[in-house]
Amino acid sequence: MREDTRSRIQEIALKLFTEQGYEATSLREIAEELGVTKAALYYHFKTKEDIVASLADMRVADVEELLTWVRSQPKTPETRKELVLRYAAKLTNPRYLEVARFMERNQTAMRDHPKIHRMREVMLELTDELNDPGDPLAVRISRSMALFTLHAGKWMSQDEKLTDEEINEAAIEVALRLMEP
Amino acid sequence: MREDTRSRIQEIALKLFTEQGYEATSLREIAEELGVTKAALYYHFKTKEDIVASLADMRVADVEELLTWVRSQPKTPETRKELVLRYAAKLTNPRYLEVARFMERNQTAMRDHPKIHRMREVMLELTDELNDPGDPLAVRISRSMALFTLHAGKWMSQDEKLTDEEINEAAIEVALRLMEP
DNA sequence: GTCTATAGCGAGATAGAC
DNA sequence: GTCTATCTCGCTATAGAC
Fold this sequence. Notes:
Radius of gyration of chain A: 18 Å
Largest interface: A-B, 38 and 38 residues
Keywords (chains A, B): DNA-binding, Transcription, Transcription regulation
Distance between the termini of chain A: 52 Å
Protein name (chains A, B): TetR/AcrR family transcriptional regulator
InterPro entries (chains A, B): DNA-bd_HTH_TetR-type_CS (IPR023772), HTH-type_TetR-like_transc_reg (IPR050109), HTH_TetR (IPR001647)
DNA-binding region (chains A, B): 26-45
Domain HTH tetR-type (chains A, B): 3-63
Number of domains of chain A: 2
Oligomer: homodimer
């Protein structure tokens, strides 16, 4: 029982965009790997950018939810720690992690894409919630690295002979250490 | 007394490639900003890729020098710390930092470019020198973030009302903390 | 060293048959 | 829902005059 075509396009596009870059990946390549012609793609997505938008949608709602939550909480060290943990929980969804990597690797190419632009904005606001403007610069740099370290820690560990659980815990450990004063 | 045309092409290309992305920046745009036609660019660089190669050259030699140095040293905590400090010293050259940012933002687009490929390779080897294979994963993740944190810490602080010296010290502080056990 | 003109290509996108 | 055929566009790169 195979997935529907729309999902397979997203899956293949995400893979190729991440490996080769967004601009370097043509619709012809995606179609070829899917086993159809590129004209068929246009039945499922109006444009190439629409494919990206559908990928971004996998993340945006999650992060906006976190942002809403954190803003309803008191700005305490405990809230910050909890935010890192909740973000890490979202990241246990492999699709989320893959989309994050795609965005990270194609930052500039995606510069004018509204959905991606919104995503960056939300991530910046989330990072802001981890920081007090009055803190020393070193503290702010350290805290601003926390969420990215969750991503990067997992990316770099993916081919280790370790369980997802172990990788997850290690990434969280480093991220939380970056949050300490 | 203005710079020669070749340097100005590099300068403009570096700026546009970083802001808009490599593929999204056409030679026409570069030429326009320079005030010539794109045909003129081909007198100074054989291809678009050659411009990138000339940019990469600004970094590769520096990093290879560091790699040679660190491999001539005993693998001690002191050597590692000194490597971070020496890398930070290279980063005080604004051009180096800009080229690092260009590469970071255009990773996938530059995937098949030999010079950029070599650069990534050397950076990975440099990061390897900061790690013992036997260390726990959390320690290895932490140490692997150190050099990148020097870049990112500076990028994110560039519009703060602080001196380069203060930014530099803060970034080093965070990077060294990531090196501690 | 810079210009005009253009070759040559592959991209995204569309029309209309099946 | 997928196909063939085609349009249009902008890009890299080159030829050759000045």
